[in-house]
Structures are given as structure tokens and as C-alpha cells.
């Protein structure tokens, strides 16, 4: 009989957001009248903007005519989207990215989850803690995380981020091969300055490590001079792979489009000690396992970079950031200590003394009918914290804060 990949047996419970969805379902079934406000998973609520919808409609129409119909697209994305990204997200900020360094995909979650296929099975992985669970779980499935003992993986190197260190992780205190960074950060909503990011780039260059940089929330940065791309840091091209997404930038969570940049300089060593470009490996991997994002969706994504598209998505982002402000101020007025929410759509709060993150989850659901995400679900250093998202509607966000404000915590 087939022997399964035993690493799956080591994974604790279910994927964080699947577990939360399950708990909501159970609660709603038991309390059918509860008007639950969801500030848990970071899913957008506003519709795609008109520029995006118009481009998608036009492309769908093209697919219905023999002269303009398209079958398989280019393995790594259509020229029009790759070049729009190079110009709109990089060249406009003084960063050169070559055409064949951009890979269009159906999601940053898939890319950050799949990229570990390029690492040796014994590569040592460092993650900030708390952390987006995909980095951890995908490496755990491949056996790199070791065993899950006392709420932590014994082969992972955790870089704690907490109120004490201002949510700025220290570089690893031992050799590691890969560091996952996500900025603006999910879940804490905090950011790194260019100088703070440079410390990681310099460390990676000095120690032969690479950085997987998840920039999915870059569009939410409002503070001047906070880097939107790791390539704003000198030397980052030698060590960093950057993953971006249209999900949070332009409301594509259900539409699916993203891209990853792998500069030619980023290399690893093969078994003979020869340098190998990760760009070439990813090309091989994508051409084998992926057939691209559909033409209408790539057209829709390219429309994000038009003048109209930019103006329209900026308005949507500003609306979500207004929700973030309401949440921050509402929680502060209710006596909570809050972090993030200024350059990211996530607000990270300290749960009341003596409670665990999951106890607070249950209390908030039961007494306020509000769903959030327990900090401990993001890693051991998340215990005692809780995440709310700014992605619900203005009305629901205000309602949620009114409910929280009425209670004594
Ligand atoms: C989150 O809530 O952390 C996000 O929705 C995760 C994701 O984009 O997959």
C-alpha cells in the first residue's frame, strides 16, 4: 500500500482560517439569529473597480471570436501584464526588473507556498513570529520544520516580533538558509523602515541566505519612505525573491492574480557546490506544473496600472484604511492597546490580561458576535494578541466598534 508523506501527520489541526470558518459555522448553527460581523480572514468586500471590470469584459468578448480567441497563454504571463508590472511597480520607483524575472501566477499564497520546492529538504528556515501560516505549513509538509512540540516546530528558527521589540525582528542568531519576511506585516500590521530591512538584506548577503519577501500589502503603505519593495534596498537583488498580489491591492481575492519576481542574481548551491539560479529553477517548475492565469484575468490585472485603474483602486484602499482608523480608535477608546493599522489593513491588539488569544476569540464571538483571528494561530509569539481586519464595510466596522465599546473589558 502507498506510504503517505508522514509530514502531513505532524501538522497541528487544520489550516488556521479553515478552523475559524468551522467555528463560525458551529456557532451560527447554534445561534441562528446572531448577526455575526466578520473581521477575521483578510478577505476584501468591495467590488472590482470599473477599469478592471471593463478590461475583463473586453477580454471575455475577445475570447468569443475566432480572430481574437486565445488558447494557452505564455508560461510566465502575457507581455502586456509583465511590462505593466515592471513599469508600474518597479521602474516608476527607480527599480530595474528584467522581463524574464517576473512570473505571473494565480496567487501569492500559492507562490509563497510553492517556492520551497526549490530548497533542499534539509534547508534551515527562519520565520518571523507571528507569521502568515503558509510559510510554516508548506515547509512542514516538506519535512523542513521538524516536529511540532509545545506549540512550535523544533527545526524552524523563530524571529519573535512583539511589543517589547517594537515588532522589529532580530536577524537569526544561527545560520539559516531562508528567511521569510512579510511587510507590511500580516498579521501585526506593522512595517519595517528601509534601514531595518537593510539589516536583513546585509545579513542574508553575508551568510549566504535568501529572503522570501511577501509584499502583498504594499498598496496600504501611507507613511512616507517605508519601502514598498525589498529591491529598494541596495543589494537585495542578490538575495531576495519578492511575491506580490492583486488580491489586496485590487480586490482580486476571488479573481486570482499575482506575481513573483526572481532576479537572476539569486542563487543556491547544487550538490556539487555549483551556483544555480533560482530563476531558472522556478521557470522549470512553473512550465511543468502551471498553465498560467486566464487571459481575461491578466487583462483585468493590467488595467490596475492604467491611470483610471490607479485612481479607482486608491479610493478603495483609502476606504479600507478609514475602517482601519475606526478600528484603531474604537479599540483604543475601549481601553485596548493596538498596533498596526496605519500602513496595513490589519490591526493587532493585546487581549485583556489573563486571557489567551483563543479565549478572547470565543468571548468576542459569543458576547459581541464579532469574528477575529487569534494571535496564537500565527505562531507562539502571537499568544496574547488578536488580529482584526479593515476589510469589512464601513457600516459593519462601525457596528463592530460600537459593540466592543459598549462592553467592559
Ligand atoms: C489573511 O487573512 O491572513 C489573508 O486572507 C491570508 C491570505 O491572503 O491568504
Textual characterization of the structure:
This protein has about 400 residues and is α/β, with parallel strands linked by helices. Helix content is about 40%, strand content about 15%. It has 14 helices and 17 strands. Strands 2-10-9-8-7-3-6 form a 7-stranded mixed sheet, with helices on both faces. The longest helix is centred in the C-terminal third of the chain and has 27 residues, at about 305-335. The chain is globular and about 60 Å long. The mean pLDDT is about 95. The structure holds D-malate. D-malate binds near residues 41, 42, 109, 132 and 247.
For the largest beta-sheet, the strand count, sense and barrel status come to: 7 strands, mixed
Instruction: Return residue spans where pLDDT drops below 50 for at least 5 consecutive residues.
Output: none
What would you call the shape? Answer: globular
Ligands: D-malate
Helicity level: 25-40%
* Biggest sheet: strand arrangement: 2-10-9-8-7-3-6
- Work out the number of β strands: 17
Average pLDDT figure: 97
Residues in β-strands, percent: 15-25%
Radius of gyration: 21 Å
Taking the alpha carbons of the first and last residues, their distance comes to: 55 Å
Amino acid at each position: 500500500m502507498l506510504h503517505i508523506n508522514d509530514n502531513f501527520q505532524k501538522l497541528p489541526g487544520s489550516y488556521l482560517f479553515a478552523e475559524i470558518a468551522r467555528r463560525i459555522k458551529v456557532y451560527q448553527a447554534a445561534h441562528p439569529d446572531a448577526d455575526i460581523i466578520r473581521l477575521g480572514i483578510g478577505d476584501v468586500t468591495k467590488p472590482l473597480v470599473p477599469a478592471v471590470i471593463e478590461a475583463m469584459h473586453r477580454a471575455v468578448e475577445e475570447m468569443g471570436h475566432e480572430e481574437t480567441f486565445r488558447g494557452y497563454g505564455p508560461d510566465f504571463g502575457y507581455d502586456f501584464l509583465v511590462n505593466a508590472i515592471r513599469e508600474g511597480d518597479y521602474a516608476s520607483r527607480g527599480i530595474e526588473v528584467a522581463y524574464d524575472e517576473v512570473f505571473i501566477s494565480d496567487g501569492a499564497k500559492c507562490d509563497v507556498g510553492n517556492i520551497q520546492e526549490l530548497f533542499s529538504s534539509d534547508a534551515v528556515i527562519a520565520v518571523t513570529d507571528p507569521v502568515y501560516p503558509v510559510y510554516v505549513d508548506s515547509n512542514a509538509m516538506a519535512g523542513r520544520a521538524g516536529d511540532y512540540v509545545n506549540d512550535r516546530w523544533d527545526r524552524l528558527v523563530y524571529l519573535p516580533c512583539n511589543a517589547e521589540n517594537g515588532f522589529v525582528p532580530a536577524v537569526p542568531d544561527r545560520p539559516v538558509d531562508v528567511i521569510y519576511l512579510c511587510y507590511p506585516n500580516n498579521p501585526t500590521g506593522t512595517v519595517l523602515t528601509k534601514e531595518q530591512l537593510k539589516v536583513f538584506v546585509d545579513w542574508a548577503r553575508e551568510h549566504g541566505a535568501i529572503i522570501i519577501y511577501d509584499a502583498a500589502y504594499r498598496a496600504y503603505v501611507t507613511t512616507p519612505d517605508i519601502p514598498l519593495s525589498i529591491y529598494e534596498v541596495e543589494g537585495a537583488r542578490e538575495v531576495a525573491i519578492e511575491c506580490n498580489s492583486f488580491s489586496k491591492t485590487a480586490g482580486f481575492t476571488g479573481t486570482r492574480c499575482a506575481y513573483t519576481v526572481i532576479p537572476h542574481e539569486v542563487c543556491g548551491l547544487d550538490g556539487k557546490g555549483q551556483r544555480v539560479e533560482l530563476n531558472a529553477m522556478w521557470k522549470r517548475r512553473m512550465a511543468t506544473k502551471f498553465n498560467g492565469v486566464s487571459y481575461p484575468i491578466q487583462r483585468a490585472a493590467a488595467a490596475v496600472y492604467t491611470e483610471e485603474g490607479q485612481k479607482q483602486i486608491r479610493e478603495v484602499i483609502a476606504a479600507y484604511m478609514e475602517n482601519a482608523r475606526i478600528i484603531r480608535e474604537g479599540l483604543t477608546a475601549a481601553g485596548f492597546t493596538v498596533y498596526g493599522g496605519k500602513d496595513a489593513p490589519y490591526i493587532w491588539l493585546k487581549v485583556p490580561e489573563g486571557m489567551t488569544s483563543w479565549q478572547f476569540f470565543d468571548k468576542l464571538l459569543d458576547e459581541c458576535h464579532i469574528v477575529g483571528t487569534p494571535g496564537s494561530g500565527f505562531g507562539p509569539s502571537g499568544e496574547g494578541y488578536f488580529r482584526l481586519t479593515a476589510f469589512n464595510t464601513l457600516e459593519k466596522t462601525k457596528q463592530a466598534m460600537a459593540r466592543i465599546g459598549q462592553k467592559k473589558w
